[in-house]
Specification:
By secondary structure, the chain is α/β, with parallel strands linked by helices. The chain is built from 16 helices and 21 strands. The strands form 2 sheets. The protein has a 12-stranded parallel beta sheet with strand order 10-11-12-13-14-15-16-17-18-19-20-21, with helices on one face. Strands 1, 2, 3, 4, 5, 6, 7, 8 and 9 form a 9-stranded antiparallel beta sheet that branches. Helix 3 runs parallel beside helix 7 and helix 10 runs parallel beside helix 11. Keywords: Leucine-rich repeat, Ubl conjugation pathway. One of its GO terms (biological process) is SCF-dependent proteasomal ubiquitin-dependent protein catabolic process. One of its GO terms (cellular component) is SCF ubiquitin ligase complex. Pfam families: DUF7885 (PF25372), F-box-like (PF12937).
Length: 620
């Protein structure tokens, strides 16, 4: 009879490994919902729980409101609730710029980057500072209208109020989930089950995806619960789940800091393998095609398996299009340095959200572009707060083939720096939303960048005379297809006339919240007659839009697909029927707060035109 001791030894080792892994996971604070300890294992009450509202909004990617007011801005998330538990559309809440999939269906929509991991679906973010650093025990998000957009909650190790910035900034995911459709727009308190982390925090980041929503989500306040001392777990542990013994631990290790990602970028020593299996029998191009479906971290892992795959994973052809936005929390100067040799042929690069809090330096960014910028066609730098004048100068010098540049919400770039963009005469797309670009620099850009097809100037508050800007567009930018003038405060019928006469290829025009435009001047009717190719027109919050304007659109802009006339008092149901009958491609019609369009009219129009999403917002 064989001895039983070896079997006992194996079982003991297996049980030891399970407990060791459980202990490590708990220590790291990376237990996900599948591995969460049951209620009888929660932290022992060793100290008093602190409850605090956000003290300050530190950063955000976009908002519906103006830079010079509080209505619909992210700044409303600071402090106690203004609206909750009421439901409806209220100006005192925080609202992001977009919702649904409408922005992906308009002429200005950008092609997505391939290799984006399925776990990353965030579209916008907001970062909130709290008074006291705590070990989080709960996060409450007060949603007052169309809830369900929050997809990730993160905590940061850096204290925004500390005089001594840390050498390393860590971000931990407290909770993450794919977008879900919530039935009904009513207010709710969203309290997901969060992970424990092993550092105190007073910096919380919410990331949202509004693609499944029927309208803008509205957030009122965020409440952070936590304790000052690190919780001690009870010894009563739940049964070990066999699913814990899987490959996800590698995923968690990969996600816990910059070091691991950088090490994977820098692996140069490979284990000796006796054979490459059957991969060396395949054509080089076929292996490249197979690997093109892997994410960047997967490429880094695969490069460690054998010399053949290392060669393929480091081939610059694998990095023609590269998005580092999903890994924003772990990208730094070292990451860019390791990627340099692989990105010599790169054409599309997405560094949006990366580099903040000192992670990427001006010198590190400049070194990377000097090696990898010559073939760049598209550069996404949204919310890159490390960018300064030197960076823009390097971009214009090192990227001679650049056609698309996104500087959305790069609000730390000084006004004079934008003059450098005029050197890139090949630009076809320029996004300056929420930047400090001034009139002189913008006039220079328009004068020298005559190939522009897509231009976003939404919420650019430092431009003094939009009529002059519109006149320059009409004279120089004949190829313009989309133009965003969201919340420009001083454009008049004169500027609109110059624009419509000179840019007759326009398919998309956003004039939302432009208070100086008045229908009585004929500016909207003139637009409709001069721009027959219009597919998207936003006249949001212009109270003067009237039946004549709608009838001109129906007669001249038959390809119209999206129309926003929120807030007008002068449009009747009869003119809307003419529009819907004439514009067969219309898919979005926002008539929120239109005083002549009540719910009964909306129901009737929905019944007669079922292919059109007709939105009627409300306030209680």
């Amino acid at each position: 009879m064989p001895p039983v001791f070896p079997m006992l030894t194996v079982l003991s080792m297996f049980y030891y490994m399970c407990l060791r892994r459980r202990a490590r996971t708990a220590t790291r604070g990376e237990m996900n919902s599948r591995r969460a300890i049951e209620s009888n294992t929660r932290a022992l009450p060793i100290n008093v729980e602190i409850v605090q509202y956000a003290k300050e909004v530190l950063d955000f990617s976009s908002h519906y409101g103006s830079e010079n007011s509080m209505s619909y801005t992210m700044w409303n998330l600071a402090g106690i609730p203004n609206v909750y538990p009421s439901s409806g559309d209220f100006t005192q809440t925080a609202v992001f710029r977009t919702y649904g999939t409408w922005w992906d269906r308009c002429p200005s929509a950008r092609l997505p980057f391939k290799r984006t991991p399925s776990t990353f679906c965030s579209q916008d973010y907001v970062e909130l500072a709290f008074e006291e650093p705590v070990y989080p025990t709960a996060v409450h998000i007060l949603e007052t209208y169309h809830p369900g957009a929050v997809v990730r909650i993160l905590a940061c190790s850096a204290n925004p109020y500390s005089q001594n910035p840390p050498a390393e900034v860590r971000w931990e995911i407290l909770w993450s989930e794919a977008p879900t459709k919530v039935n009904g727009p009513q207010a709710r308190q969203f309290t997901p089950c969060i992970k424990q982390i092993n550092f105190p925090t007073n910096l919380i980041r919410l990331e949202v995806n509004s693609s499944l929503l029927d309208y803008y989500t509205e957030l009122d306040a965020v409440v952070l619960h936590g304790v000052k001392e690190r919780p001690v777990l009870s010894l009563k542990t739940s049964l070990i789940d066999m699913n814990d013994i899987d490959e996800d631990e590698d995923e968690e290790k990969f996600g816990c800091g910059m070091d691991t990602l950088n090490k994977q970028f820098s692996i140069v020593t490979l284990r000796e393998w006796p054979t490459n299996g059957y991969f060396d029998k395949l054509p080089y191009e076929l292996i490249q095609l197979i690997l093109s479906h892997l994410t960047v971290p997967d490429l880094c892992r695969l490069a460690q398996t054998c010399k053949l795959l290392y060669q393929h994973c480091c081939d610059p052809l694998q990095y023609i299009h590269l998005s580092l936005q999903p890994y924003w929390a772990r990208i730094n100067d070292t990451s860019l340095e390791y990627l340099q040799s692989r990105c010599t042929l790169i054409q599309w690069l997405n560094l949006s959200w990366t580099g903040n809090r000192g992670a990427i330096s001006v010198s590190g960014f400049s070194r990377f572009l000097k090696v990898c910028g010559s073939e760049l066609v598209r550069l996404e730098l949204s919310c890159g707060h490390f960018l300064n004048e030197t960076c823009l100068e390097v971009i214009t010098e090192m990227c001679p083939n650049l056609q698309e540049l996104n500087l959305s919400s790069c609000d730390k770039i000084p006004p004079q720096a934008f003059n450098h963009i005029a050197k890139v005469g090949s630009l076809k797309r320029l996004i300056l939303y929420r930047t400090k670009v001034e009139q002189t620099a913008l006039l220079s850009i328009l004068n020298f960048c005559s190939e522009l097809q897509h231009l976003s100037l939404g919420s650019c508050v430092m431009i003094e005379d939009y009529d002059l800007i519109a006149s320059m567009m009409g004279a120089k930018c004949k190829k313009l297809r989309s133009l965003d003038l969201w919340r420009c405060k001083n454009i008049t019928e004169s500027g609109i006339a110059e624009l419509a006469s000179g840019c007759q290829l326009l398919e998309e025009l956003d004039l939302g919240w432009c208070p100086t435009l008045q229908s009585s001047t004929g500016c909207f009717a003139n637009l409709a007659r001069k721009l027959p190719n219009l597919r998207k027109l936003f006249l949001t919050a212009n109270r003067s839009v009237c039946d004549t304007d709608i009838e001109e659109l129906a007669a001249n802009c038959t390809h119209l697909r999206q129309l926003d006339i929120l807030g007008t008092r002068m449009v009747s149901p009869a003119s809307l029927r003419k529009l819907l009958e004439s514009c067969k491609d219309l898919s979005l019609l926002d008539v929120s707060f239109c005083s002549q369009i009540d719910n009964r009219v909306v129901l009737e129009l929905n019944a007669n035109f079922p292919n059109v999403f007709i939105k009627k917002s409300f306030t209680q």
